[in-house]
Design brief:
This protein has helices at about 5-10, 40-45, 60-70; strands at about 15-20, 25. With about 80 residues, the protein is mainly alpha-helical. It has one domain. Strands 1-2 form a two-stranded antiparallel sheet. A hairpin with a 6-residue loop joins β1 and β2.
């Protein structure tokens, strides 16, 4: 099944790229100027970031985990198998 057909059947809000493993897909790398710290919720989803950015009222541990993740995330490190 093609990645496009798979995406349509699953109704995913982002593109899929087939990998060299049958049935395994990845998302394309976001543009080089993509910054998840300031991206809108819809832009995060469009680029395959399916977790919600924590707000001020969320648990501090959740906010800390988000900050640690985003601190080390870089577009140039994105790897497509």
């Amino acid at each position: 099944m093609s990645a496009i057909r798979e995406r349509q059947e699953l109704r995913l809000p982002y593109a899929l790229i087939p990998t060299n493993l049958p049935g395994a897909f990845t998302t394309p790398a976001p543009p080089s100027n993509f910054d998840p710290r300031i991206a809108s919720a819809s832009s995060l989803i469009k680029h395959g970031f399916l977790w919600r950015r924590p707000g001020q009222g969320d648990d501090p541990a959740l906010r800390g985990a988000w900050e640690r993740l985003i601190l080390h995330w870089r577009t140039e490190d994105y790897l497509v198998p």
